[in-house]
From TrEMBL:
<keyword id="KW-0378">Hydrolase</keyword>
<dbReference type="InterPro" id="IPR011059">
    <property type="entry name" value="Metal-dep_hydrolase_composite"/>
</dbReference>
<protein>
    <submittedName>
        <fullName>Cytosine deaminase</fullName>
    </submittedName>
</protein>
<dbReference type="GO" id="GO:0035888">
    <property type="term" value="F:isoguanine deaminase activity"/>
</dbReference>
<dbReference type="InterPro" id="IPR013108">
    <property type="entry name" value="Amidohydro_3"/>
</dbReference>
<feature type="domain" description="Amidohydrolase 3">
    <location>
        <begin position="41"/>
        <end position="400"/>
    </location>
</feature>
<dbReference type="InterPro" id="IPR052349">
    <property type="entry name" value="Metallo-hydrolase_Enzymes"/>
</dbReference>
<dbReference type="GO" id="GO:0006209">
    <property type="term" value="P:cytosine catabolic process"/>
</dbReference>
<dbReference type="GO" id="GO:0004131">
    <property type="term" value="F:cytosine deaminase activity"/>
</dbReference>
<dbReference type="InterPro" id="IPR032466">
    <property type="entry name" value="Metal_Hydrolase"/>
</dbReference>
<dbReference type="GO" id="GO:0046872">
    <property type="term" value="F:metal ion binding"/>
</dbReference>
<keyword id="KW-0479">Metal-binding</keyword>
<dbReference type="Pfam" id="PF07969">
    <property type="entry name" value="Amidohydro_3"/>
</dbReference>
Amino acid sequence: MFDLIIRNANLADGRSGIDIAISGGMIAAVERRIEATAGTEIDATGRLVTPPFVDPHFHMDATLSLGLPRMNVSGTLLEGITLWGELRPVATREELVERALRYCDLAVTQGLLFIRSHVDTSDPRLVTVEALLEVKARVKPYIDLQLVAFPQDGYYRARDGVSALTRALDMGVDIVGGIPHFERTMEDGRLSVEALCRIAAERGLPVDMHCDETDDPMSRHIETLAAETVRHGLQGRVAGSHLTSMHSMDNYYVSKLIPLMAEAQINVIPNPLINIMLQGRHDSYPKRRGMTRVRELMDAGLNVSFGHDCVMDPWYSMGSGDMLEVGHMAIHVAQMAGVEDKKKIFDALTVNSARTMGLEGYGLDKGCKADLVILQAADPQEALRLKPNRLAVIKAGQVIARTAPRIGELFLAGRPDAIDGGRDYVPRL
């Protein structure tokens, strides 16, 4: 007798007709036709069942603040930073908590149950840190929230930036962040990477840096980050987010850089929605895409995972909390439209991101935590195309969100009464 059995599921690895049995909040069996009963059974009807989506790069302190204190008229990264600099000093703990909790509600309905959020430490009041630590505790039953101490205005550039980041870590923030390309000089950027990696090594913490989020091919702090990772024995515990300057670097230099990154086991986090929106703003035509070299990094064996980064905030007026929207954009920007490419893109939203965040018990194998999502799609490729409804979101074996299937009604003589956009509207081979 199990607590829950999901029947007739498709899995991302291509298996179909699979039953998943859950007991005590854990996956007890993954087999065809499990001969047992359960307190609850769900028929997946040949739909895709996957572990939850994972967002390894987000800014929850700024989310849903679009229009505060005013709109980003130019739509640029620098105006967004200026706007956040105006909002941050007047933001209250209560307001920050309320916005973050509303975003977490949205995330749950999207099957997004693991989030790494950067928390700005540039305001020495650290109200952002206090607020996100409260949110982390409140959502713990349903969202695993990791926090990065992020010196938005620069570790050395911001007044009290060094002491504020140290205090944030002392308060319980999980991860050391940085933004070397935003320091006043390249040398200050290099020194910040060295200092922050040393702090992480001393405290036994991971590192996740905004690194080279620029079109400047001479912004090469990822090289320093990789070298410091090896120097301090941090292999596998360091993430380089954005890395958009790699889009503009010459191929010879990149041919040396990628092996160094692989030696350091750097986790790479592109943010396709934001990168394609904010980069290349100084170009006329030809206009650069501005996203890092996803295919080449994957081919070199680096762990690549995608972040949503922003939702309706000073930098990005769009966004829905849907990681499949992120993957959909990645397919286009990285020009990864092949069957195997799409499998890799889907992995970058799930298992790769779980590896970046160091999640334990993540997956659909026996013995994994019973955290699952049932999608209104048959396979990962269809999910990335349709960005379908999440029919059920399950945490520790309990359904915590449902969305009705998206069915279109038709009123046409001689045609069907309704269309399931995923199941009915596909080529018939």
